[in-house]
Amino acid sequence: MDILLSPAQQKICPSCCTSIVNQIEVLPLPIAILEETSKLRAQDTEVLCSDTAASLVANAASNSTTVDPSGSGNKRSLSKPSVCYRTGRWNAEESAYTNMLIKCFEMSILPLPHGMKLNDFLCDLLSCRTSRLTKKLKHAKLGSRTYRGGMTMDKNVSNISNVIIHGGGIQRAQTLFLKTITPEWVRMELQFNISRMWRTHLANFW
């Protein structure tokens, strides 16, 4: 679905930092991946989560956040879908991914709303509870650190380079992190959730 933006909604592209974005193409979420997840989860005899992938499918289909197609700029709020919160030890790939996210958060080069708490941002992307984050990042003050500015878009060479370089770094770190997740249904579910959260944040950025 293509959405035309009103002049008030138009912003500088968060990728190239030079062009004005006047239209957004919203791609459908890969709901089919959760149907496959449901089958794999049913075969797993050591499931530690009471929520079913079926509930995730229902919530994802009915509770996605998008820009209002009417062009009014309103966002459709969504309730969080049921998630299977991740527990356990951190591996090197997850730590590297998290550190990259924190670095970009502090640099204000992510498409996030002004005032968003670092704790909420990381919990959403990593599908884990606050207690797991605070245990790993004891001195990070996750609850008191907030996003400043709603993504700075200075048109200088330094800022453009930061967005491009660190954006690619996040993608690479995310790919390496997801490869370490087992069993497969957990990886697929987490991959879907990460895609959903980035989509939500980008929609709310506009």
Task: Tell me what the structure shows.
With 206 residues, this protein is mostly helical. It is 48% helix and 5% strand. It contains 7 helices and 4 strands; from the N terminus they run ββββααααααα. The strands form 2 sheets. The chain has a two-stranded antiparallel ribbon. Strands 2-3 form a two-stranded antiparallel sheet. A hairpin with a 7-residue loop joins strand 2 and strand 3. Helix 1 runs antiparallel to helix 2 and helix 1 runs antiparallel to helix 7. The longest helix is centred in the C-terminal third of the chain and has 23 residues.
The tally of strands reads 4
User: What oligomerization state is this entry in?
Assistant: single chain
Tally of individual helices: 7
Beta-strand content: under 5%
Spatial gap, N to C terminus: 16 Å
Average pLDDT reading: 73
Read across the widest sheet, the strand sequence of neighbours is: 1-4
Helical/strand content category: mainly alpha
Overall shape: it is globular
Low-pLDDT regions: 50-58, 60-73, 75-81, 151-158
Biggest sheet architecture: 2 strands, antiparallel
Percent of residues in helices comes to 40-55%
Round the Cα radius of gyration to an integer and report it.
18 Å
SSE arrangement, N to C = EEEEHHHHHHH
